[in-house]
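>> received
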Amino acid sequence: MQALADESGVSKSYLGDIEKGRKNPTTDVIEAIAEALGVPPRELLYHAALDEEDPFLQPEQLSLEDVTEEDAETRELSSLARRMRPTDRRFILDLARRLSR
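>> returned
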């Protein structure tokens, strides 16, 4: 959990409170956690909604569209870019701009 706290910028204690249902995260916190995990925020919300104890929940009505290969590659690029030095990140960004012309 410490690694997620470090990567997302959300404190370990706050993450624990979310996990135990003591806190309801804001959309900013959900986005930070999702980005740190490399998943779309909607995926976190989808899984949070799957409460098997809820007698009114009909899981078949909830659907999570398949993540396309392009989405996965974009997430991977974003994750890799966060780990790069700023000069390397600018170099890659410049290269990507040139290739997209």
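>> The helical segments are 2-8, 12-19, 27-37, 41-49, 69-83, 86-99.
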